[in-house]
From TrEMBL:
This is LppX_LprAFG lipoprotein. It comes from Amycolatopsis deserti. Keywords: Signal. Gene3D superfamilies: 2.50.20.20. Residues 1-21 form the signal peptide. It comes from the Bacteria.
Length: 275
């Protein structure tokens, strides 16, 4: 259960950070946002706005490997010191995660901390180059980088817009895009760091497509992103009971101040194992 919770948490963290580069709550618009006809135009318009805003707050809901996710957090995604914090409920347990200076910090329940963290400290430290960090996967490195345009990069590198409309979401006018992500073109930006090379090769030749939907506000910043990773899990050979994986990310307050720092040093120990 500890491994499931940690891996589910890592996936949630990546989903949060990758989409974090793409949203805000900018209020009502007098006219619907412009619709773009191709992925490159969409990314060009949206990524620059995300870089300017730098910070945002977000919520994440979904299901991974049969475990429900419910999370919220905030982050500073560009600039000299990217960082992020998120509190989530995974498998009925509450976890807090922070990413500061390319280090992932996990606040574990006391009984887990006693077994998995050096000195039984409440916070586990997972540097990106540690064995535990490698086990969690390359996705942790993506989270540590705090790249605010990761979802947009996926769309740019491997996405095809299949449909679009002007509509409303949560009371504001938005543009809504349906996008297919070609896994063969996107394995470098997807959460596949834990998978062995033979599985990655299988994915690249599977013809798998990940459905994604993106809602952009009047500033061309996404206010909501949904992903259905079930085809990816199925193509990777996950057990039937673990194949369902869906995510919905919502964003608000782009550009608002955030306060994210590493936990106090005397409360942090190295993560010994995730097994």
């Amino acid at each position: 259960m500890r491994k499931i919770a940690l891996l589910a948490g890592a996936l949630a963290l990546v989903a949060g950070t990758t989409a974090c580069g793409s949203t805000t709550d900018s209020g009502q618009a007098s006219e619907p946002p412009k619709l773009f006809g191709n992925a490159q135009e969409l990314v060009l318009a949206s990524s620059g706005k995300a870089d300017q805003a730098q910070t945002a707050k977000f919520t994440l809901t979904g299901s991974v490997a049969g475990q429900t996710l419910d999370a919220g957090g905030e982050g500073r995604f560009t600039g000299p010191s990217p960082a992020m914090t998120m509190t989530m409920n995974v498998a009925g347990q509450s976890q807090e995660m922070r990413v500061v200076d390319k280090v992932l910090y996990l606040k574990l329940p006391p009984e887990q901390a006693a077994q998995a963290v050096e000195g039984g400290k409440p916070w586990a430290k997972v540097p990106e180059d540690s064995e535990a960090g490698k086990a969690i996967g390359a996705s942790m490195d993506q989270a540590a980088q705090g790249d605010p345009t990761q979802v947009l990069e996926q769309i740019q590198q491997a996405g095809t817009i299949t449909r679009s409309e002007q509509t409303t979401l949560d009371g504001q006018q938005v543009s809504h895009y349906w996008v297919n992500i070609d896994v063969a073109k996107a394995t470098d930006t997807l959460n596949t760091g834990e998978l062995p090379p033979e599985v990655l090769d299988k994915l690249k030749n599977s013809g798998t497509v990940i459905p994604m939907e993106v809602w952009l506000d009047a500033d061309q910043l996404p206010v909501q992103v949904t992903q259905d990773l079930t085809p990816l899990m199925r193509a990777a050979g996950a057990p039937a009971e673990a194949q369902n994986a869906t995510m919905t990310m919502k964003y608000r307050d782009w550009g608002a101040p955030v306060d994210v720092a590493a936990p106090p040093a005397d409360q942090v120990g190295d993560l010994k194992t995730i097994g």
